[in-house]
Amino acid sequence: MTAIASRLLPWFRVVFGAIGLLVPRVLGRWYGLSTNGDSPVVALRYACIRALGLGIGQLTATGATRSDWDRIALLVDALDTLMLLEAAVRGRIPKRSALVMLSGTVSGVVVGFLARRDSDPVRATD
């Protein structure tokens, strides 16, 4: 199951990134964010460009390079999760929006950790 999720996650990043890059207001509404000004649109596009880059990097990399891309994506998802939690706790974004966005970042963290665990060689203990 983890293998399937780790193969699908980069595709999700590409689709999410493309939607946010091309129509950020649609993504903003899905997240429950106000997209009346330019700042939210710019922020969404920035996040989506990053997701698109990570997804393409993961999909096109092979071997050890793919493992490097997976580690970078895991780190980005973990940092995004922390940022979203901080923003929600301080009231900078609505709780519903935070929950929707956290569903993506936390999923990325869980899939990333499980994929790393599954790919690590089993170490014998004495």
Can you walk through the features of this model?
The protein contains five helices and no strands. It is mainly alpha-helical.
Indicate the topology.
Elements: H1 2-22, H2 24-31, H3 38-60, H4 63-89, H5 95-119
Kindly summarize this structure in a few lines:
The chain is an all-alpha fold and 126 residues long. The chain contains five helices and no strands. The radius of gyration is 16 Å and the shape is globular.
Give me some keywords for this one.
126 residues; mainly alpha
Got a strand count?
A: 0
Shape: globular
Largest sheet: none
Low-confidence segments: none
The share of residues in extended strands comes to under 5%
Head-to-tail CA distance between termini? 31 Å
Number of helices: 5
Helix-and-strand structural type? mainly alpha
Summarize the amount of helix as a percent range. Answer: over 70%
The run of helices and strands is HHHHH
- Average the pLDDT over all residues and give the rounded result: 86
Radius of gyration: 16 Å
